[in-house]
Amino acid sequence: MSNQTVIKVEDLSKAYTIWASPSARLHGPLLGRIGQVPFLPLGTRKLCRRLSREAFKDFFALSDVSFEVRRGESVGIIGLNGSGKSTLLQIVVGTLQPTQGHVQTSGRVAALLELGSGFNPEFTGRENVFLNASILGVPPREIEGRFPRIAEFADIGEFIEQPVKTYSSGMVVRLAFAVLTQVDPDILIIDEALSVGDFLFQQKCYDCLREFKRRGCTFLFVSHAMGTVLDLCDRALLLEKGVLTFDGSPKEAVDLYEAHSLQTRFGISSTPPAAPIPPPAATQAEPAPVCTPEAAAPVAHADMAAPSILTDAVSLEELFLFDEKGTDREFITSGQTVKIVISVRFHRSVKDPHIGFKIRNNLGVVFYETNTYCMRHFPGPVTDGDVLTAEFSLRLPLIEGDYSITAGVANGGRNRGDFAEALLFQHDARLFGVTRDWSRHDWAGLINLEPSVATRRKCPSRPTLV
Predict the structure, then answer these.
(1) What is the pLDDT of residues 270-304, one digit of tens each?
(2) N or C: which end of the chain has fewer CB within 10 A?
(3) CATH number of the domain encompassing residue 353
């Protein structure tokens, strides 16, 4: 990654006029003009100007947004619907003009925004390839040599010779992304468009993005897939109602986004990070017995704190990670059977309480989550002062590394684990490390699927000598 700035956004704002009614579009500007006529009485002019101002209001999709992106950096933009993400990308690309502020870019910019942007629906796929490439600054002679690779990547068969207006949305994305793979952009800007394609095509696109990243391409993209942000991004921006509220590590941005989503949905306020519940001091530095000491790296306590949502209804009393012998552990061996024990004190009556957890790695990627409701277990009503304890027994065949447990409490289970009321959502409530069991087979990946293997050999029949 270079220190050269390739995208510079300064004091960017975008306002849209919201009219009070359809008729206000007509009489609002008219009254404003009348209010400027000099020979009318002053009172009349003031009244017309006031009525003109009341006919509309400005809605700011973006407000004073500033940031810089360095060459080779991958930056994700996240936020709830209506937070200004797509507006920001359109201004950076140049398809939308800001109300104030400005954007500077350096190098060839390629963008994949809303479906069909840059395509003429009357042109064939082949014609649109040349049109789109010329917009991106690639000469026709150069794109002629690359066209077979574009057609192969798009994989839409003979539709490449048909008008784009006959394409499905997935075919449009295939063709648009195929063009981007062959124009060697310095800056690649994508707005959630890849979510339209099928699973296999999405995999191919993300493999291509990773290759672009290895070659030093700069990324700026919007996504609601938090796993993609955590996987591809070096940095993330969080927008809330057009305001840039966070610019930093993807994990912190995703945690804030998740907390803000719950806050918006359930009408509760987020709180500063709660301190993780530490394991007993006697076991804090104890490595798993079957692992080498080098594998037992210290857990990154300071870097794993995240925003929480706490309410007056409940408080987290205890969170244990017990091994088979009932010892609370900070380090466990991959594949070990453990018990996650969560105790919660209720400070009011709750009719249908449920307790759950999720396990995340140090990047914030969720490896597993469940709760009592999803496990078809119903603890029953609780009253003020009751302590409810949930014990989850499970195996953890995880790759070695640092992990955290998020604790959650809710009321009123609904279909597929949805709830009527969130009572507690505490990220990184407990931290632990996983060390590899070096006595077992070698493996790589995220989880150990513990395969078995067998081989068979069949010898060809030998000729019989006479």
Answers:
(1) 555 555 555 554 443 343 333 333 333 333 333 34
(2) C
(3) 2.70.50.60
Other residues' Cβ atoms within 10 Å of the Cβ of residue 355: 25
Contacts of 112 by beta carbon, 8 Å cutoff, 6+ apart? 173, 176, 177, 180, 188, 189, 190, 191, 193, 194
Mean pLDDT of 47-61: 86
- Do residues 239 and 310 share a domain? no
| CB 407, CB 316: distance < 8 Å | yes
Average pLDDT along the chain:
85
According to the model, what pLDDT value does residue 296 have?
A: 30
Same domain flag for 312 and 428: yes
Whether 6 is in a domain gets the answer no
Residue among 264, 265, 305, 301 nearest 284 (CA): 301
Report yes or no on 181 lying in a domain: yes
For the record, the structure tokens of 78 come out as 């996240």
Q: Hey, how many other C-beta atoms are within 10 angstroms of the C-beta on 452?
A: 4
Residues 6+ apart with CB under 8 A from 89: 77, 111, 113, 189, 191, 220, 221, 222
**Domain limit, last residue, from 250, 267, 300:** 250
The domain that contains 157 carries what CATH number? 3.40.50.300
Q: How many residues does the chain have?
A: 466
- The whole-model pTM stands at 0.74
Mean pLDDT of 43-62: 87
**DSSP annotation string for 266-305:** HT---BPPPPP-PPPGGGTT---TTS-GGG-PPP-TGGG-
Write the CB contacts of 41 (distance below 8 Å, at least 6 apart in sequence): none
Asked which of 250, 271, 304 is the last residue of a domain, the reply is: 250
Residues 230 and 276 placed together within one structural domain of the fold: no
Our count of domains for the chain comes to: 2
pLDDT of residue 136: 76
In a domain, residue 444? The reply is no
Residues in contact with 85: Cβ distance below 8 Å, sequence separation at least 6, in sequence order: 77, 78, 79, 191, 222, 239
Residues 159-174 as b or e (16 or more Cβ within 10 Å = b): bbeeebeebeeebbbb
Residues 242 and 265 in one domain: no
- Paired tokens of 296: 């037992």
Q: Based on the domain organization, do 296 and 373 belong to the same domain?
A: yes
- Identify whether 40 is part of a domain: no
Query: What whole-number distance in Å separates Cα of residue 167 and Cα of residue 86?
Result: 24
